[in-house]
Design goal:
Blueprint (H helix, E strand, L loop, with lengths): L1 H33 L3 H14 L4 H13 L3 H14 L4 H13 L3 H14 L4 H13 L3 H14 L4 H13 L3 H14 L4 H13 L3 H12 L22 H9 L7 H13 L3 H14 L4 H13 L3 H14 L4 H13 L3 H14 L4 H13 L3 H13 L15
Helix pairs in contact: 1-2, 2-3, 3-4, 4-5, 5-6, 6-7, 7-8, 8-9, 9-10, 9-11, 10-11, 11-12, 12-14, 14-15, 14-16, 15-16, 16-17, 17-18, 18-19, 19-20, 20-21
Length: 403
């Protein structure tokens, strides 16, 4: 009897220790998360999972933090482990779908959005994002149905109106398309994509100067969204803007400030008039030599016009302001590659990888350069790493004989 009581007491003590240790590790993760020590937060969750491998929320939280670090494949693995413990938690399917979107696994994402709405039928965002993926796959009718379902669940989901407008534009119903975009803007004046859509819809109607005004609005506060947008069958007629852009550039009735010249430079860059991009950004930097955004966009414009040395110089200047910008290092590496300075290009890409070790494009490019420089083993290691990081959904690896 005494032995049984002793064992029971030991069990209770051990259980109490595990619970208190788990709470300590959970608090540790939260505290490090709030001060943006994401790697430290993950370390606390690693220990928590080692202590209790059945803690489903720990996998979910670790997956969310890995997404912040752009480790999308790592996040997908954690969400999958969480599902092995609890397969009915709708949010985890949604999070995994979002991570799959980031690596361009569109069909895999759709399957997870399907599960999300199965377990949480009122999730407006799940219908919306599934609709976006259907549109990418050119399933416009399926996309439209999902957008309408998203609005049934939440009628103020303003971005949905913009994407319905884009679908209407696919069948050249431009008037209705613009009405939907305007509705999105009426609900939220900073609905970025609505301005981009409006601009290109007006370009289909040859209303180029009106389109410029829409682009000018959105480029003033979000010049980077463009990379994420898909316009379907709309023709992006950059050459059609030549006369309208010339008229815009000749306008002298504007405030001569660094920010205004920057905005005008961004507009010219967006519409591929790199000569006027450089001229406007030169003026911006004359007024404010420390305008970091002007350096990064002028670097890109120089790169587009094959002024590689000038481009590299601007990237270096920009990196004095933002030392942790992996994209700037990567783009600078591409300029070194143009100059056939492969060794420097490899070193520069390595700096990008140090900052962001989860981008498959970085490893693939470094692998290509290493293969060119006869370092086949390391080159293949990078190609294989790129593939494992989700590059398989974005790039063609058939030409690389790496196993």
């Amino acid at each position: 009897m005494k032995i049984s009581i002793t064992i029971l007491l030991l069990f209770n003590a051990l259980n109490f220790y595990c619970q208190s240790k788990a709470e300590e590790l959970r608090d540790c993760s939260s505290q490090k998360y709030y001060v943006e020590d994401f790697k430290g937060s993950i370390e606390c969750l690693d220990k928590l999972i080692a202590l209790n491998p059945k803690d489903s929320s720990a996998y979910n939280n670790r997956g969310l933090i890995k997404e912040i670090l752009k480790d999308y494949c790592g996040a997908i693995k954690d969400y999958t482990l969480q599902m092995n413990i609890d397969a009915t938690f709708a949010d985890t399917y949604f999070f995994r779908a979002m991570a799959k979107d980031k690596i361009n696994d569109i069909k895999g994402a759709i399957l997870d959005y399907n599960k999300t709405v199965e377990y949480e039928p009122k999730n407006s965002d799940a219908y919306y994002f599934r609709g976006l993926n259907q549109f990418k796959l050119k399933n416009n009718n399926a996309a439209l149905k999902d957008y309408k379902r998203a609005l049934e669940k939440r009628e103020d989901n303003y971005t949905v109106y913009a994407d319905i407008g884009l679908i209407k534009a696919q069948s050249k119903n431009y008037k209705l398309a613009l009405n939907y975009c305007n509705k999105a803007i009426a609900l939220d004046k900073r609905c970025d994509k609505a301005y981009y859509y409006k601009g290109w819809i007006k370009a289909q109607q040859n209303k180029y100067f009106e389109a410029i005004k829409d682009f000018e609005i959105v480029l003033n506060y979000n010049p980077n969204l463009e990379k994420e947008l898909n316009y379907g069958n709309l023709k992006l007629k950059y050459k059609g803007f030549k006369l309208a852009l010339s008229k815009y550039n000749k306008e002298l009735n504007f405030e001569k400030t660094d920010s205004t010249y920057l905005k005008r430079g961004l507009l010219n860059y967006y519409l591929k008039d790199y000569k006027n991009t450089i001229q406007n950004l030169n003026r911006a930097l004359e007024l404010n030599p420390n305008l970091a955004a002007a350096h990064i966009y002028r670097a890109q414009a120089f790169g587009k016009t094959n002024h590689t040395y000038e481009s590299i110089s601007d990237y270096k200047k920009y990196l004095e302001f933002d030392t942790k910008n992996d994209i700037a290092y990567f783009n600078m590496a591409l300029e070194y590659e143009k100059n056939k300075e492969l060794d420097i290009s490899i070193v520069t890409i390595s700096k990008a990888i140090e900052i962001n070790p989860y981008d498959p494009e970085y490893y693939l490019k470094r692998g290509q350069l290493l293969l060119k420089s006869t370092n086949g083993i390391k080159g293949c290691e990078d190609v294989i790493t790129s593939k494992k990081l989700g590059g398989i959904y974005q790039f063609d690896y058939k030409k690389y004989k790496c196993k």
